[in-house]
Amino acid sequence: MLSAGWRALADELALWRDAGDPVEFWWRDDDAAGPAPALARLLALSANASVPLALAVVPLGADPGLLAGLAGQVSVLQHGTDHRNRAHAGEKKTEFSGAEAPRAAAARLAAAREQLEAQAGDRFISVLAPPWNRLPPPLVPHLAAAGFRGLSRYGARSSAEPARGLREVNAHVDVIGWRAGRGFAGEDASLAVAVKHLAAKRTGAADPREATGWLTHHAVHDEAAWTFLERLFETTRKIPGVRWRGARDLFYIS
Ligand SMILES: [Zn+2]
User: Fold this and answer.
1) What angle, rounded to 10 degrees, do the helices at 37-49 and 223-237 form?
2) pLDDT digit string, tens, across residues 81-140
3) How far, CA to CA in Å, does 146 sit from each of 1, 58, 115, 159?
4) 168 CA to middle of ligand 1, Å?
5) How far is the centre of ligand 1, averaged over its atoms, from the C-alpha of 84 (Å)?
6) 179-222: pLDDT as tens digits
7) Looking at the DSSP assignment, which residues form a beta bridge with residue 76?
8) What is the model's pLDDT at position 209?
9) What is the distance in A from the centroid of ligand 1 to the CA of 64?
10) In angstroms, rounded to a whole number, what is the distance separating the alpha carbons of residues 74 and 175?
11) E strand segments, the chain
């Protein structure tokens, strides 16, 4: 017996199939810092389900053992520089305060990028996933000069190219309920958010070419979150027309 959430997803995917349009998903996981049982479980999940994983790593907090231990379909994205909250009064949590000069923030980002790229090697793709998904708009035009080709925030993008030379592909479905004890947000709630983005793309309310991104945080997953992800991958991979895209493909389209 399917719950309401799974039924709604199946119905939405059927509409895409009837229209002859492929459904594109991708998977981003934030806050990787070092080897840990939860990270090992995450990597095993990606390998077992054959779903590519975009791992957003905090450069200045990254244990070299983390990057040496990666295998399979795993790309490394840059999750800020040190993930420290620099919000000024009146700002929401952010590593990049509007009070910091954009050139100074870009220089910090470029230095951290070089360090992470040297450690991650071929797995690295020059995509910035800012902590808390926040970046002051004046910083965005500086990212390409700081060596970035991509930007990944949260929610339907307003532009595929927010600045010259920079492609944006966001995450849209956060499976953690941050305000409800930081556990799993729940099956029906998570699936409803995914269906909402798919429907927005199908009806033209959101960019139909932006892959729908699932956002996870392995360090805080409870058992219900792991079970949900296993079921999500298993279920969607069997559905014709659904593709799980790798981050390199999404961001490095010429
Ligand atoms: Zn984070």
Assistant:
1) 10
2) 999 999 999 999 999 999 999 999 999 999 999 999 999 999 999 999 999 999 999 999
3) 51, 17, 13, 20
4) 18
5) 10
6) 878 889 999 999 999 999 999 999 999 999 999 999 999 999 99
7) 55, 124
8) 96
9) 18
10) 20
11) 23-32, 53-57, 74-78, 124-128, 150-151, 167-168, 173-174, 176-177, 183-184, 212-216, 242-244
| Ligand 1 centre distance from Cα of residue 132 (Å) | 6
Q: Which residue has the tokens 């390199």?
A: 248
Question: Which amino acid makes up residue 32?
Answer: A
Separation CA 112–CA 194 (nearest Å): 32
SS3 state of residue 141: helix
What's the CA-to-centroid distance between 83 and ligand 1, angstroms?
Answer: 7
Ion ligand 1 contact residues with beta carbon within 5 A: 30-31, 131
Ligand 1 centroid to 13 CA: how many Å?
Answer: 30
Q: What pTM was computed for the model?
A: 0.96
Q: How far, in Å, CA of 137 to CA of 98, rounded? A: 9
CA 91 to centroid of ligand 1, rounded, Å: 17
Contact 160, 168 (CB under 8 A): yes
The two three-digit tokens of residue 161, written as one number: 């190219």
